[in-house]
Amino acid sequence: MLTRYKFLLTVTRNNYFLRQLSLESPNVFAKPESRCRTVEDNPLNHNLEHEGRFYVVPPAVCNQLFRFGGIPKGYEVQAKTFDETCLMIRKPALEVINMMKVADYSRPIVKYVLFGERGAGKSLTLAHILHYALNSGHLIIHVPWVPDWMKKCKDHTRSETREGFRDTPLDSAAWLAHFKTQNQHLLSQTDLTVTSNYTWSKREETRSGSPLVELVDLGINRIKYASNIIVALASEVKALSSSGRCKTLVAIDGFNCFYNKRTMIKDENWKIVPPFQLTVTEAFINLVNYNWTNGSVVLTADRLVWSGNERGESDLPLYQLGKEAFELLDPFIPVHVPCYSEKEFHSCMDYYMERSWIQNENGNTEEGRSELMYLSTMNPYQLMKICGPL
Amino acid sequence: MTSVYSQIARSEKQTEEFRVLELVKKSAQRSARRKAKKIELLPPRTNVMPVDQDWSSVWPGPRSFHPASVPLPLRQGYNKKGVSPGKFANAELMKIPNFLHLTPPAIKKHCEALKKFCTPWPEELNDENCEKHFPVEVITSDYCFSSPDIREPMARIVILKVKLSALTLDKHAKDKLLRLVGERYDPSTDILTLTTDRCPLKKQNYEYALYLLTALYHESQKTEPWESEKTVADMEYYDWEQNVSYKNVLGTLNWPQSVKDTENFKLTPEMEEYKKAISDLMNKGEDLYTISKYKEATKKLLNLPEFLPLEYTTA
Question: Cellular component GO terms, alphabetically (chain A) (predicted)?
């Protein structure tokens, strides 16, 4: 934890003033509407007027949605430093949210695929969409980052129910806890019930009509069955949505990892396990199928899921997804997440100046800004990195 | 007076006494050797060459390199430490063949001299007509070779170029020809290039190249019985109706009824647009433009609106 006191001296060309920020105090300097901020923190009401501005995600929401992941690590550290989680309202997010508002939910699900270059803001766009989904009462199925399961698998065992498959008990149980936290307000309602019988062992079974929470809790407590419970959960959610009892948002970051040829998991014979031999993969591939209604699916096709320089030539969705995934998802709506526009760039710089992040006296000059624009090539991640030591 | 006396006295002294042994010759005696005669060289001719001189009269015929006549600051060869050796006393420059007698002005003069033996090029035979009447282009190389053997192995290579538009090929024949030929076809210029060098003589290679062209043409016109086993993965272009995408679209639009019979569906305008967009995406390659076209087409297909600016849409 940061225990240093923070006296930040900001020197502008015209005036000098002293600021004191402490870690525990709430954001006393919560600014009203300014060039880079907006007070409107409900994504239901965001529209193009707010484009390019930051809004603060309430800490309670942040805790609920992103406790187990969802915001990239670098941004999380910055949010901790600034004492608030701020998201910029950008066009791709607004576009998807708008389409989700007006889509016909009696038709099969609509799939959106976010794509863009590294650091352009795909994961944060997904975070914005998740906030919207929370506020509009969607049931959220969110996978923060698929390669975490594939590359840094904590534990894997041979599946008992499926021949040749592998379970990932710890990761599955952790994800079920994440699911429970994100949807705790919806799961506490009793009309979300399981529709078919599941027998896990001689003594454990889940009857149809029992609440969904029971299934999730069983997964968290009995991690042996966690992977299979995720598969069951996926089909349950589809049935619930189609019958109209809840609307669902499926958000998967790094979807193209499921179509990688290999994971870092090796089975007992030291052979590499491909993603399609993991039990959990089946659950999410099932969710992306178009045979259910009353839901939306938002995926990202990210270059970072591959290791090294594999598939590094283009960020476009067809290339990143590959033929199989494209055929599965088709027809989908590809949404391009571009780098910052000039307006967004200045808004971001204003935000950094406001948080006293840039101490270099040239940071606020026109020359300084144009230099930063050039160095970061308008890429949000690069800008964050470059402004770090300033 | 005194100096003359001392000299005489010294010489008298020397003749009277013994000769003194001198182990180290004094400088006066050392310089008594004969000096080497220094040949006076004229400055190189290049110093006085005017810039606009007639080079073909300076170098009228093939000649081994002569540094003082060539007004170029050439460097040739390798020096481990330092710069490449200059042109004076450079054996390498003298060994290699030079074509200083065949500079463009010299060639022009040769052409002028030969012109009286030539007839003019027929005016009607411009580039287009050349291609029309003489579609096959044959390229061969001749070499000047001096070695114990006068045969140059590279001289046997024959390159045959022909534009596929000059051949009458239907769709199937063209596809088969392209598969047979592989990398030898350049789609941007539509030229098929056949390079033959497997026979020892140029004439043999030329005849082989002509035979190859004939064989390719006739083979591609034939249809073998096993060609009907062509699968979707073998297709050289993306045919939407044969692909999974078509089934997906029909399935999505007609849900919850599943679509088994895909033959009898009539395409709506949105589906036509979608078909065009996805075919372009697959056939022409993916870039932001084709992706955005695909996005628009999908939006229309799924009845989603264009992005509404500045309007509050409530949940």
Answer: mitochondrial small ribosomal subunit
